[in-house]
Amino acid sequence: MQEAELYFVVGALLLYLLDSGLLLYGDELLFATGLSGWHNVAGGGQLLLGRRLLWPNPLLPAARLLRVCWSRASTDNVGGAPPAPATSERVEAVAFRRALQPLQFGVVVLLLLVAVALPALLYAYGPGLEVLLLLAAIYVLNLSMAAWLWHARSRLELGARACAMLTVDLLLCPPFAINLVRKISLQQQAAGDPLSFAQSRFGAARRRALAAVLRRRVHAELAADEPGGAQWRKLQALMHRVESLAA
Asked: Would you kindly state where each structural domain of the chain is located, as residue ranges?
């Protein structure tokens, strides 16, 4: 593989990683699906323009993502029964998940083509017919995903403008297209309480890990707030819910 070809592959992968990054506010978390269910995406220690910089797992482009705001968790009835788990989150709707499945398969194949097949062919054959055939296969795959995107956009709850912007990624920048599933799922909003969502969908170990993150965030907010005020009391009540999440 020549130097120019190496730059081409590295550039494509860097574009994918840069497009994967997310900037979260201080009271936001990122939930993601994995092989064993939902979990909180770890990280976010780096700050950029006052926001937390976070990267989902680059090896799991088919994972659904959900951006949640922990400060909006209900603090009513603390000490009693927890709020009922929200069952109407769009990202968990059956129709949405089924419409997303072909695209989840497509982005995994696309990642393998860009990150594995492309450098392997460049290394073995150089820039020849084999690489041109691979690039053609990538665009056929992306055209197929674009067609499905428009066909299923009502079930994916995408407007025409959002669908058009995603189509541009698919047709003009294959590395950006690897993030298609993430971008679609991030446009969905959780309809219910984020802590109830975690309580009902996270495993015990992942609930404890989430509680540890929230404990640090809430303690930092308490230290910066005026004791005895309305916001301070709300944060104290929220801390009780965080502790029950870890139990």
From this structure: 3-186
